[in-house]
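> example.struct
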């Protein structure tokens, strides 16, 4: 594998008559004297990493008050979540009860309308029957009061 600090070399060979051969070598990219920029960057990254680790491990101390506050905060969040879930369940139950009540009212209204219709039909039949009876009674009364012929 090629070293990233090694310069890229490009060769061009030109063949001519058998007695003349010319070869050119050009260096493309970095100079042939080694560059130390890579080592400087690596050293800088290592120093930054060490300083970062130093701060991470030295600021990790927590006291009992912070732990208690975190526990209370977690407990409060859990209670809020539980109350929210209970409220949502109650809302679903209320919606279902409302739906059932509306269905019951519709059924009762339909039943009352059917009963009223049947009662009206019976009343109409009774009135018709009474009218027929009254007509028969009137005909009988007229027949008994008329002189025979």
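> example.seq
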């Amino acid at each position: 594998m090629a070293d990233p600090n090694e310069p890229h070399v490009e060769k061009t060979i030109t063949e001519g008559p058998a007695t003349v051969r010319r070869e050119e070598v050009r260096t493309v990219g970095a100079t042939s004297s080694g560059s130390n920029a890579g080592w400087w960057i690596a050293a800088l990254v290592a120093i930054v990493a060490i300083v970062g680790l130093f701060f991470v491990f030295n600021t990790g101390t927590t006291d009992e008050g912070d732990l208690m506050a975190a526990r209370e905060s977690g407990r409060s969040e859990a209670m809020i979540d539980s109350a929210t879930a209970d409220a949502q369940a109650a809302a679903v139950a209320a919606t279902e009860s409302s739906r059932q009540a509306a269905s019951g009212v519709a059924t009762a209204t339909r039943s009352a309308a059917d009963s009223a219709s049947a009662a009206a039909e019976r009343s109409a039949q009774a009135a018709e029957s009474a009218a027929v009876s009254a007509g028969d009674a009137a005909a009988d009364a007229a027949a008994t009061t008329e002189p025979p012929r």
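> remarks
Residues 139 and 145 are 10 Å apart (CA to CA).
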